[in-house]
Predict the structure.
Amino acid sequence: MKAIVDGQKCTVCGVCSDACPMGAIALRENQVEISDDCSLCGICVDTCEFGALSLPEVGHGPSEDLGSYRGVWVYAEWREGKVHGVSHELLSAGRILADKRGVELGAVLLGSGLDDQMAGELISYGAEVVYVVDAPELAHFTDERYSKCIVELVNRKRPEIVLAGATSMGRSFIPRVAAGLKTGLTADCTELDIGDEGHLLQTRPAFGGNIMATIICPNRRPQMATVRPKVMKPVRMDGRQGRIERVELPSRCFEARVEVLEVIAEQDQTAKLTEADVIVSGGRGLRSAENFHLIEELAGLMNGAVGASRGAVEEGWMAPSHQVGQTGRTVAPTLYVAVGISGAVQHLVGMQGSQVIVAVNKDASAPIFDVATYGVVADLFEFLPEFVKRIKRER
Amino acid sequence: MDYFLTEEQKMIQELTEQISREKIRPIRAELDEAEEFPWEIMRYLAQADLFGLYIPEQYGGMGGGIFENCLAVEKLGEACIGIATSFAASGLGAYPILLFGSEEMKQKYLPQIASGKRLAAFGLTEPGAGSDVSGIRTVAVRDGDHYILNGSKQWITNGGESEIYSVLAITDRIKGPRGGSFFVVETGDPGFSFGKKEKKLGIRASTTRELIFQDCRIPADRLIAKEGMGFIIAMKTFDKSRPGIAALGVGLAQGALDVAVEYARKRVQFNKPIISFQAIQHKLADMATKTEASRALLYSIARYMDSDPREVSKVAAMTKVFSGDVAMEVATSAVQVLGGYGYMKDYPVEKMMRDAKILQIYEGTNEIQRNIIGQELNKEYGRLKESFI
Amino acid sequence: MHIVVCIKQVPDTKNVRIDPDTHTLVRQGVESIINPFDMFAVEGALKIKDLNGARVTVMTMGPPQAAEALRETLGLGADDAVLLSDRAFAGSDTWATSTTLSAAIRKMGDVDLILCGKQAVDGDTAQVGPEMAALLDVPYATFVKKIDIEEPGFLKVLRQTDEGSELWKLQLPALLTVIKELGEPRVPSLRHKMRAKKAEIAVWGNAELGLDPNSTGLCGSFTQVVRVFSPQRRTNRIQLEGSIENQAEQLFQYLKKARVPGL
């Protein structure tokens, strides 16, 4: 199977041929020809301004009664008795989707010894119903139990859409839920909408954030997506009414071949990169581990987290848990300050989703400036102390 | 240039190049600065099976020859000859055992050396005996089933890091050159200790230490071959190891050339990259030509030596002297091409220039090499009946 | 113990450039590498082999040229390699990929442990590992940074979470997805490299796996890409100028105006 060319529309302009990462598109007299090297990635489809390219459809038609699935669900994540911010965000996004579809918005809460306060909080962010499964086996997260519970709940209630945060927990067990339900899943979405045919349009970055792809799951239900934290806007609606439904599940849902022996909270709070509003990151330009105190000072002043480039981590100046980029964490804070980081692609893909990016670098041609909102071409050892001084003056 | 390498030889190059690129280049400046022995790299090289390149398969090696070993040393030397020296010095220490050791001795030590589990070292030089080996003062006296060693060795590469030492000591002073013998001494032998670590101009990642023998008692079977074979063993070992020093030189010259050309293409002065100036071009051309000549000489001599010819002293000396001189010259030129930047530690050529100097000094100074070549010429022509005049 | 490591070939982003005008990836001449996270998985498997003894099989799904990636891991010390290659696999989403990979694991039969990188750097989905575990019905742990085998039939793993770490005990057979902290990949060895050069690599397609062609590739996928587009880029970068004091002042004012938190 390979991409489909519409000979009527193709002008043999060659744009798609240049864009194809597999080198699978050859120019022929009347139209382009696609070789067996085609990996069906779909990049060519977008590059063609004449609409001459398309991909064959997935699967072989809707396999069951899709119409019997109704409702939008959000998996509500919590920590130490508090609902995770991403769940607020998802409920607000889910509210919009549910309204577009004219269906109910539900939240799912799993845990042990849960009080109604958290459920109430979920309602105030848009949920009309909160399904609560409360069992001692759910005290600690394990993929096996959590996924079995959700699979069971979905099979009973049949929602059409299930959303979860792309946190370490969501990214870990939601794929197992999708596989258990034999349905599609799109990871790390940054945009959700309902298409003309009523499908969930799931948009996510691909190729390290350099390309955006919109993905649908046309033939299976529920449609499942994980969504990056800090992308959707949480909207609290006080005074909302909703119902709380406590659900008993059969004991097989709580069986597991995994035992949680110990939970070790990270001592170093500054490593909490993915949740920080402000991240100050340092790279090789810092020259030594000691000089990272400059980064720590600025991050501390702004109540932010400390990040590091791969180079700085490889030098041993910072622990790997601080690494931002392809082999580290992908972050999207409100403010990202890159200090002494040249901006290798591996780094850029891990932070270019940030709202405001400040780049401080001696080299004006450093690629980091290509993604910066504000560029400072200066010696960081001169600039940082000056900037810190400026902030302190206001306090 | 294509030197028509075999599949296996290309694989050695590929592998050592990968280690140079990924593991050595990123840390060479740091190790140089800290004068720190490259243990981490030694472990990578051991894991990669490189310590046994020249050791026969029956002793756990790869069964290659001098040429294979040189290919590896050259590629490692492109990144850092301090680190490459630490690697090559283990081979120098192993050769006396490999060439003259008894079967039991080979079975005992060579697999450990081939796997890189233990490093070897070669102990010859003394305060009073450098180029003039007859000045050796370390003595070994037979005592029943043991020998007792007394004396000290100076400037021993890998001293204190290695665990297996091939050491030359005098067993019979009256016999002069025929009174020297080689012994294997191991770290932990009673009476064996190490002196101070030397501070050096270059190859600072390699360790240079004094070996001290104070009534050092070793079993008699640690004697390599027979009493009195010491000087022959030393000469034969050097014949085998000199191409390795030449390989360090070829690698260093190539490494310096790589930096110089890349820099000259990027550095803009008078609105042009400096490589467009003839003054720079000619310098680079000479550097490239001499580097290639030094490589071509090394490869042909190493291959010739692997065919096990009778007389190798002259050619082994030729490749050592030539590539050492070329490396020094090319490294100096590279610093010149980079100008002020070349003199700074921000670029690797200042280190290469400091490192290169040792190539003209250790394992027989280049003056001694020329002596050898000269004496061999004298002998060779003396045997000829034909006249060319 | 039989360990299977699943690897993927991805474009080497080290050499990828972003076109400054169009802000799209310049992919021409980009070489393929083994997904870096998968290299940590290979290293993890080889460490277990070094310590406890194990047979390590490396597996990938891809075009015939993916055999080179497998050979690279054989050079590091993996024992066997399996290439899953079939035109029918093209266009697989994570579900179809997991279906194919897990069919291969079932065919091998005697697998105790499956290791995957936490995600592939080209797709970043992190789904194939957990989905395979579900299809094979084995326990799994994600984002693993340390593996200990103390008791036969069990694993102790330390996994990284957003909040810290967790120590889990899993019953074998199991699947783990791993992160960088598990260990930097080793260098190849000459012996392994020489063996890798000559090694026969098994190639399995739909027929060998006994899979219904409708369950693999695009046919077997649930998700479909309907649109691919370049993200909007900042084109309005503000370059600060003047003295250091001046630049610090300007940046402070800009950030204040942008109402960033923390100021």
About this structure: Chain B touches chain C through 17 residues (CB under 8 Å). Chain B has a mean pLDDT of 95. Residues 121-228 of chain B form a domain with the Butyryl-CoA Dehydrogenase, subunit A; domain 2 fold (CATH 2.40.110.10). Strands of chain B lie at 120-123, 139-143, 146-157, 164-170, 180-186, 192-197, 208-219, 223-224, 268-269, 272-273.
